Each structure stands twice: as structure tokens, then as C-alpha cells.
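User: Okay, second chain of the day. Same drill as before: sequence in, C-alpha cells out.
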Amino acid sequence: MLALTALALLLAVVPARARTGVLQHDGHSSHVELSMCDTQQPDESLRSAHAELSAQKKLRKVKPRAPESFEIDTHFHFVVTDDTAHLYTMDKINQLANAQLTALNTAYAPMSITFKPTFPPTYTVNTAWATNNDDVAMKTALRTGAYSSLNVYFQSNLSSPGSSSSADSSSFLLGFCQLPAAATTTSCLSSPHSNSTSTCTSKSSSPTSYIDDGCNVLLATMPGGGMQEYDEGKTAVHEVGHWFGLLHTFQDNSCASGDSGDYVDDTPQEMTATDGCPTAKDSCPGSPGLDPVSNYMDYSSDACYTNFSPLQQQRIIDLYKLMRQGN
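Assistant: Same drill. C-alpha cells below.
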């Protein structure tokens, strides 16, 4: 048991191993090294919100909600290096943006969530920004809207923060996103144990306090973008799941019965991230269910991704209303 716990702790802090991908650009194919997702661990406010929402679900008979629909103010930003600028005409950018918008709206349609973008997207040629070597400057210049506004930065040469990647690097990161922290106005969850309020979140209303909010996505993962096995727009779907507050299905890399994992009860416990699209995978054989390899919050290839679980769908709505809506 001690050895298993130690392994879980190790996996929790070690990034998923890099994978080899094939990038098709300008009629040429090249082998590249891929890292999957660099979204950081949830802070205590988000963990508390997840725990409270999970407890409410377990301890209360939840009545069906009245039909609701949500329109998300959305802003796409294309950021490319000097060397790749010739690949992205405005016609190409609009084509990619529209295809990505379709992928997002399709994935989130079961929640009646629609992404409403501002067109045309912004387009910037800046090698430092495109390689993720100056994220704060990029977002200070480009970010638009409130805390409830989704900004997605499609970067031609995205790499892990702090990696000092160059424009000619063959190592790429698929994406990362800022999880919701505290909202710009105070919101409280009612405690499932009493009539009092339990979890409250608050955040400064100054836009500078959330300038880093948004999702960074490798441009080649957009539909038709050229990253084989990862070019159907599902990376953005995964990262936007984080923006709403969802965690990886393999959160905590643990099979322990008492581990909260992703705090969602209908995603089976998962010890390891999925690679590719296996027909069956069971990293926690002592727990009910097979690994959720088709779930958008795993690390599967795009062809494998098909769904958010019903409770993930409800959690997206609950977290959005608590931490972003109206802020």
C-alpha cells in the first residue's frame, strides 16, 4: 500500500511522457515531440467548489433543472512565428476558426452552451509569443472581455511555459488553460448540511487580476491544422473543459478508494492517462468500470474523444454559474 501511494504521488507531479507526432505543413511531413496538456493543479477554491457540488449531488434529491442555455462571449487569437506566417492567409485563418467553432459548439451542445465569437479573429506575427516565451505580454495585449469571456490563443509553435523554445524547435505542447479560481463577484454554494452558505469565492474586479485567463492551444490541432491524430479540434474542447473547471479524468493518478480524483462520480477511477485510442483500458481493475478513454478530459487521440459524462455536463454548468457567469 505504501509503495502504491508513493507511486501515485510521483505520477501526480511528473508530466505525462512526450509522444511522437507527425505534423503536415506546406506539403511536407515532419516527426515532432508532443506534450499533451500543461494545465496546472486546481487551487483550494476550485477543489472546495467541486467537493461541495459533489456533496450536494449525493445528499440531496436534485430536481431536474429548468431548461437553460448559455452563450459564451468568445475571442480567438492567432499568433504565429515569422517562419510560419506565410502558411496562414486570412482566408485560411477564417476557415480554421469556423471549423474550430463548429467542433466546440458540437461538443458542448448537450449542455446548451454556444460559443459566440468575434470575427475576424486577431492575427499577430510574433515569434516570442507564438513559442510561448512571453505569455503575459501576449495576453496583456490581446485579451478581450470579462472573466466570463473565453479567450483562446492558437499559437503556431506552442511549447511548455518556461521551456525557452525556439521557432525551429521540433517539440510542441498541445495546450493548457487557466482553471477558474474565484469569481469577480462573491458567489456562495449552499451547504448540503444546513441552510447556511458554505463555499464562497471572490476575485478582484480589475481585469489585470485575470489577465492570464484563457486557453493556449497549438494551432496545428485545429480541424485540418495538420497535427496527425490531433487535428479535429478536440484539444481546444479539452482545454475549454478546464476553463469551465473540469479536471483530468486521471486527476491524482490514484486507484485509492478514498481519492476524490476529478470529483465527478460517473467518471471511472483512472490511474494513468490514455495514449491513442485503445479498445479497452483498465488502469484501476479494483474499481468499477473501464477507463473513460472516449472522455474529452482524458489524453486520448481526437478520433477517440466523443463525450463528457452526464455529471461532467452538470458540473460544467454549475461551475460556470458559480465562478464565471456575470463576472
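Residues 1-16, 191-198 have pLDDT under 50 and may be disordered.

User: Thanks, on to the next one.
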